[in-house]
């Protein structure tokens, strides 16, 4: 039985970290409030002390873990004008769907209440995907202005196509979306058109 008197410096972060460990090890199907509190080594009531319900917890977990997309977007933006366009995009995009990111996306898609909580918290329903589309679109636009991508390419169309293709790939075969060579093939096809 987990201890009930464990002192947590940052209880919310400790619960998020426990949830992430469960996701990475066992997948989204295993992610329950009981699994999170057991993994965190805390009493069952601790989660509900900080979150009104499990769907709120999941929505806040997703929000807390989407900061990495902004980091990837910043790194991608700094590569504009340097190296090969395909190389820059493939390197950034192959990091977008690393575990547990694809699990967060699956949770947001599968759980209506989580999406409602995301919106109530001022977020998009699928923040990781939409942030990724914005980052890729911005990068493609920057490369267009630098003359490295065709002027008639439409960043607003290419970006969701690339992110969507990767999402489908990751959903079907999670490691494929992080495979640089496979991601580069998608990028080459998308920006060549």
From TrEMBL:
Residue ranges for the DNA-binding region feature of this UniProt entry: 32-51
Keyword terms of this UniProt record: DNA-binding
Ranges for domain HTH tetR-type: 9-69
Record has DNA-binding as a keyword: yes
SUPFAM superfamilies cross-referenced by the UniProt entry: Homeodomain-like (SSF46689)
InterPro entries reported for this sequence: Homeodomain-like_sf (IPR009057), HTH_TetR (IPR001647)
Protein origin, superkingdom: Bacteria
Protein name: TetR family transcriptional regulator
Provenance organism: Kribbella karoonensis
């Amino acid at each position: 039985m987990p201890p009930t008197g464990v002192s947590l410096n940052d209880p919310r972060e400790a619960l998020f970290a426990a949830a992430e460990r469960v996701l990475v090890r066992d997948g989204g199907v295993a992610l329950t409030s009981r699994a999170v509190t057991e993994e965190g080594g805390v009493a069952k009531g601790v989660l509900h002390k900080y979150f009104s319900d499990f769907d709120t917890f999941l929505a806040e977990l997703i929000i807390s873990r989407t900061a990495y997309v902004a980091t990837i977007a910043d790194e991608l933006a700094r590569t504009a004008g340097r190296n090969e366009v395909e190389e820059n995009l493939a390197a950034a995009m192959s990091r977008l769907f690393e575990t547990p990111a694809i699990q967060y996306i699956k949770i947001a898609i599968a759980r209506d209440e989580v999406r409602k909580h995301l919106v109530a918290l001022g977020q998009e329903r699928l923040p990781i995907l939409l942030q990724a589309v914005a980052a890729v679109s911005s990068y493609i636009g920057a490369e267009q202005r630098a003359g490295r991508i065709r002027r008639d390419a439409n960043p607003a169309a290419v970006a969701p196509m690339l992110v969507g293709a990767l999402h489908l790939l990751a959903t079907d075969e999670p490691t494929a979306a992080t495979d640089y060579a496979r991601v580069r093939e998608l990028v080459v096809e998308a920006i060549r058109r």
